[in-house]
């Protein structure tokens, strides 16, 4: 694994962990750019425990995978 990719993976894992710890985050959306073919296949909404690890393995985008997590927040306030 490239040092850059490793750094990104750690960053994304950390972000996912924070979202899991936040009670307002109910799910996570994986967003992929057009030129990330693997991302195009996996993008969508996942339960917090089911989200795939980012950056995606096998991403063919030149320069590396730039897929991101988007938190889905509970918009209902008590
Ligand atoms: Zn990607």
Keywords:
single chain, 78 residues, alpha+beta, three-stranded antiparallel sheet, 2 helices, 3 strands, binds zinc ion
Rounded average pLDDT: 90
Helix content: 25-40%
Any idea how many domains?
A: 1
User: Total number of helical segments?
Assistant: 2
Radius of gyration: 13 Å
H/E element sequence: HEHEE
Small molecules bound: zinc ion
Return residue spans where pLDDT drops below 50 for at least 5 consecutive residues. none
Q: Give the number of DSSP strands.
A: 3
- Largest beta sheet, briefly? 3 strands, antiparallel
Strand order of the largest sheet: 2-1-3
% residues in beta strands:
15-25%
Structural class: alpha+beta
Any idea what the shape is? Answer: globular
End-to-end Cα distance = 45 Å
Architecture blueprint of SSEs:
Elements: H1 3-21, E1 25-31, H2 37-42, E2 44-46, E3 68-73
Antiparallel strand pairs: 1-2, 1-3
The protein binds zinc ion (ZN).
Residues 32, 36, 38-39, 55-56, 59, 61, 65, 67 line the site of zinc ion.
Report what the structure shows.
The protein is globular, with a radius of gyration of 13 Å. The termini are far apart. The protein contains 2 helices and 3 strands; from the N terminus they run H-E-H-E-E. The protein has helices at 3-21, 37-42; strands spanning 25-31, 44-46, 68-73. It has a 3-stranded antiparallel β-sheet. By secondary structure, the chain is an alpha+beta fold. The chain has one domain (3-73). Helix content is 32%, strand content 21%. The model has no long low-confidence stretch (mean pLDDT 90). Residues 32, 36, 38-39, 55-56, 59, 61, 65, 67 line the site of zinc ion.
